[in-house]
Design brief:
The complex is a heterodimer of chains A (about 400) and B (about 150). With about 400 residues, chain A is an alpha+beta fold. Chain A has helices at about 25-35, 165-170, 170-180, 200-205, 210-215, 215-220, 255-260, 335-340, 355-365, 395-405, and strands at about 15, 40-45, 55-60, 65-70, 75-80, 95, 100, 110, 115, 145-150, 150-155, 185-195, 230-235, 240-245, 290-295, 295-300, 305-315, 320-330, 375, 385-390. Chain B has helices at about 5-20, 40-45, 60-70, and strands at about 30-40, 55, 75-85, 85-90, 95-110, 115-130, 130-140, 145. The chains are: A alpha+beta (about 400), B alpha+beta (about 150). The interface between A and B is large, with 42 and 36 residues.
């Protein structure tokens, strides 16, 4: 177990010490400095809190959190931990509540997380009870700042985090608005247990280099060739990114054939191609947009398949990916059907994403004896910058730029 | 009349086909316009229609097998299905509805076995030319969590 500063970090962002992926000390520091630090963490969708009193329980890193809509219409979030002995306050994944009461000793809380009641506070028949100077206002679970942006509810334990739009940056905001431009509805939720540290997954999401090499399904059907039109956007902090592409039938791509790579397979054709027969929904022609927000949020548009993904840490070398599949409120039955078909592309059994569930585990197992070695993240040089083309690891370096800043490691 | 023994024989053959890696024959258990979906109990309770696998034709199942063979990358693994006694909900000469509980263990290439999924098949059968076929199979998992990835079908 070590302190993050005790690990040897190269002075360049092109190297990542393997020691950061399986260390209890680093993991504990991340909980404090990243997840409970000056970051905005995705909590849930505004649409998942439809009424006054609607609540969901979630996690910020490993810290349990309650998110709830109060009678004033605002969304509040507080740590899901009773101020008395620390038990969970809310046990269900979601529900509707006038107020919350801890089951252990019946201490109660309003929807804003204020401690409002202590059972037998004055004792019973003059016996027992809390000391007269006990002040309920001074006790309560930690509260989060909440920001709702385009229907996404973010929370932060930090008073220093910049406002959400500044945190996201102008380009990322525009790309979120592009997808979440009208009211959404949830069409399914799935959780995928990942056999790896959370950072290996969020790096994978930012890694536009691997997409067409690991995921053959994409390449074969010309959904995602590196030489398609497209690009990568990295925000000023480095932590937020967008990778996007658009199909360009005019530019028939020969680069894979020339290289003879595994991921070009002429024999493979679909018997029922309706899974790829999307409807025209995005006037800008972008067929794929993967967007990440530091530390653990992903917004995905793959053709008509929309989803948010939330990464939840589970110890130093495990994590969970929470998928919420989305449609729009005004979808026609045919549009909904298309989205349901395209759900085959993503998730734990997804034609173009199942590999991502396993590849982090391959790294986690591969580096078991290599604490003092480093990963190479040098595709596209050592810069962190937006650009055309996706044969680059620029947004992976961007993640490490933001990570080092939050963890107090010089870059 | 489709009876319990017909269904049990069907289930035994279905499980054996997947567990012995004869995936190319797996779609043959379905009618051409069959619906197949893998989901979990919370989505079902809340009426959320998505699946981690979602098909409305046998051809989509054939495509999934082709993708598993040709395109997708995953560690070598196999399943062991244990299917319970079907609860026959309705049956006549040509069709039946039944629910059948399943447990599926996953055996990885390195030798370890883990309980991968439990749940219930919600099935609608049709008899076509004397042969029993699934018109609909919804595999409703008890857990909302899938470990690592789901390559092979349930």
């Amino acid at each position: 177990m070590s302190d993050v500063q005790a690990i040897h970090w190269a002075d360049r962002l092109t190297r990542v010490p393997y020691a950061v992926y399986a260390d209890d000390g680093v993991h504990a520091q991340e909980q404090d400095r990243v997840f409970r630090g000056a970051t905005w963490n995705y909590l849930c969708l505004d649409a998942e809190l439809p009424e006054d009193g609607s609540y969901r329980t979630t996690h910020v890193g490993e810290t349990p959190v309650v998110v709830v809509r109060d009678a004033d219409g605002e969304v509040y979030a507080f740590e899901n931990r009773c101020a008395h002995r620390g038990a969970l306050i809310a046990l269900e994944k979601s529900g509707k509540a006038e107020s919350f009461q801890c089951v252990y000793h019946a201490w109660s809380y309003n929807r804003q997380g204020d401690l409002t009641g202590v059972a037998f506070e004055k004792g019973v028949k003059g016996q027992g009870g809390m000391p007269p100077d006990f002040c309920k206002e001074e006790h309560g679970p930690r509260k989060l700042r909440v920001a709702v942006y385009c229907g996404l509810v973010f929370g932060s334990f930090s008073d220093d985090v910049p406002p959400i739009e500044e945190y996201l940056g102008e380009d990322i905001c525009a790309r979120i608005e592009r997808v979440l431009h009208k009211p959404v509805k949830v069409i399914g939720r799935f959780t995928q247990a990942l056999p790896n540290d959370w950072k290996l997954y969020v790096e994978n999401v930012r890694d536009s280099y691997h997409a067409s090499l690991l995921h053959l399904f994409f390449t074969t059907f010309e959904l995602n060739r590196l030489s398609q039109k497209g690009g990568v956007i990295v925000d000023e902090s480095g932590g937020n990114h967008v990778s996007y592409s658009m199909i360009d039938p005019a530019a028939k791509d020969e680069s894979y054939k020339e290289q003879g790579l595994r991921s070009d397979h002429d024999r493979y054709r679909l018997k029922d191609p309706s899974v790829l027969a999307g409807f025209d929904e995005w006037p800008d022609g972008i067929t794929l947009q993967i967007l990440s927000v530091f530390p653990g949020f992903v917004l995905q548009q793959i053709q008509n398949c929309l989803a948010v993904r939330q990464v939840v840490t589970k110890g130093k070398d495990r994590s969970e990916l929470h998928w919420v599949y989305l449609g729009f409120e005004d979808d026609t039955p045919e549009q909904l059907r298309m989205r349901l078909k395209q759900c085959n592309l993503v998730g734990p059994a997804g034609f173009i994403s199942m590999e991502d569930g396993a590849v982090g585990g391959f790294v986690q197992r591969g580096i078991a004896g290599a604490r003092d070695q480093q990963a190479v993240v040098a595709m596209g040089g050592d810069v962190v910058a937006s650009g055309e083309g996706r044969a680059t690891e620029t947004s992976v370096r961007g993640f490490w730029k933001a990570y080092r800043q939050h963890m107090g490691v010089a870059a | 009349m489709i009876d319990l023994l017909n269904l049990m024989a069907f289930h035994a053959a279905y499980a054996e086909t997947i567990d012995s890696d004869r995936l190319e024959q797996w779609p043959d258990f379905f009618a051409p316009d069959a619906h197949y979906r893998i989901t979990h109990v919370e989505n079902e309770q809340q009426g959320l229609p998505a699946g981690i696998v979602w098909a409305d034709s046998r051809a989509m199942l054939e495509d999934r097998v082709a993708a598993l063979r040709e395109a997708n990358i995953y560690e070598r693994q196999r399943y062991r299905h244990l299917l319970g006694v079907p609860l026959l909900e309705a049956a006549d000469e040509h069709s039946a509805r039944a629910s059948t509980p399943f447990m599926v263990a996953r055996i990885m290439a390195h030798g370890e076995t883990q309980l991968f999924a439990t749940g219930v098949y919600r099935d609608r059968f049709v008899r076509v030319d004397g042969k029993l076929l699934l018109a609909e199979r919804v595999a409703v998992c008890d857990s909302t969590v899938t470990d690592t990835l789901m390559a092979l079908p349930l």
